[in-house]
Design goal:
By secondary structure, the protein is an alpha/beta fold. It has a domain of 219 residues: NAD(P)-binding Rossmann-like Domain (Rossmann fold, 3-Layer(aba) Sandwich), CATH 3.40.50. Helices cover 41% and strands 18% of the residues. The strands form 4 sheets. Strands 3-2-1-4-5-6-11 form a 7-stranded parallel sheet, sandwiched between helices. A two-stranded parallel ribbon has the order 7-10. Helix 7 runs parallel beside helix 9 and helix 9 packs across helix 11. The longest helix is centred in the middle third of the chain and has 21 residues. It starts with a strand and ends with a helix. Keywords: Lyase, NAD. Its EC number is 4.-.-.-. One of its GO terms (molecular function) is lyase activity.
């Protein structure tokens, strides 16, 4: 297949590209290399694929209709994987309009261009944050209605609704994947697991927002990449799928795993819970398992161990 991958120079996009190349696909990446974090890291990600001959990089903004038009005119795509977005729950409170422009209008531009050029298959990256505040129980696409509590989560829900509209009105086949706290090597430096591990390894204090009892479904990045490739093989109108580990771990338990993996004791400080942070996330994987044959393989402990090895190399 020939895949258009938006946001392909990022964390998930890099791992996904490696998986797509391994199965013989051709990948066209569009990325604006913004300065949310050091663009040099994204260019380093891209350089991993330089010798493949099947990765084509197009630098530019997804909200630029001329760029999209040129791409769709010049190349024929079998499907689109849409990872590009402004991420981050907390930072979205400071610039909600920009989050809407990129995450919602950018998605609409992409859908419009796909419609104009008769490309009808899309995998869209959504987020577990759309579920909002829930009890410590599994979040189900079938039972739990979205109740977002941050601008970021609201933009993801709005983009999901756009996808459903285009599927119903224009015959698109769209799989919306709700990712649950993705981590692993190449992770964005602002993410908690990256920050925690770096600070434990360098004997610096960690700030925990709340009392440490908030819990997450931490999902290793190669499992997410596998979920995306599964979604590229199964199409049935508009569908929502959870992509997670199916396990639930408190922040305190996560820190303990990190201490065991590094051999260092964490220095903990505590602060008040931040706006938009939900108490718990936990993926019900029943639908993804049955329809996509999705099955996560990497445990949190194993994933943390891989992260430690990678980060120790980064710190040399």
């Amino acid at each position: 297949m020939t895949i258009l991958l938006t946001g392909g120079a990022g964390f998930i996009g890099t791992h996904l590209t490696e998986r797509l190349l391994a199965q013989g696909d051709t990948v066209h990446i569009i990325d604006n290399f913004n300065d949310l974090y050091d663009p040099a890291l994204k260019r380093q990600n891209i350089s991993r694929h330089a010798d493949s001959g099947r990765v084509h990089v197009h630098e530019g903004d997804l909200c630029d209709p001329l760029l999209l038009h040129r791409l769709f005119q010049q190349y024929t795509f079998d499907a689109v994987v849409h990872l590009a977005a402004l991420p981050g729950v907390r930072s979205s409170f400071g610039q909600p309009n920009e989050y809407y422009r990129v995450n919602v209008l950018g998605t609409q531009h992409l859908l419009d261009m796909m419609r104009a050029h008769n490309v009808r298959r899309l995998v869209f990256s959504s987020s577990s944050s759309v579920y909002g505040e829930t009890e410590r129980q599994r979040n189900s696409e079938l039972r739990n209605q979205p109740a977002p509590i941050s601008p970021y989560a609201q933009t993801k829900q709005a983009a999901e609704q756009l996808c459903q509209q285009y599927a119903e009105e224009h015959g698109f086949a769209i799989n919306c994947l709700r990712f649950f706290t993705v981590f692993g090597p190449l992770q964005r430096p602002d993410m908690a697991i990256y920050q925690f591990l770096r600070r434990i390894l360098t004997h610096q204090p960690i700030t925990i927002y709340g009392d440490g009892n908030a819990s997450r479904d931490f999902t290793y990045v190669t499992d997410v990449a596998a979920g995306i490739t599964k979604a590229l093989q199964h199409w049935d109108g508009f569908q929502l799928y959870n992509i997670g580990s199916g396990t639930n771990t408190t922040v305190a338990q996560l820190v303990q795993l990190m201490e065991e993996a590094t051999g260092n004791k964490a220095q903990l400080t505590f602060n008040t819970r931040q706006p938009g942070d939900v108490s718990h996330t936990w993926a019900d994987l029943s639908k993804a398992s049955q329809r996509l044959t999705y099955a996560p393989e990497v445990s949190l402990a194993e994933g943390v161990s891989h992260m430690v090895t990678w980060m120790q190399m980064m710190l040399l």
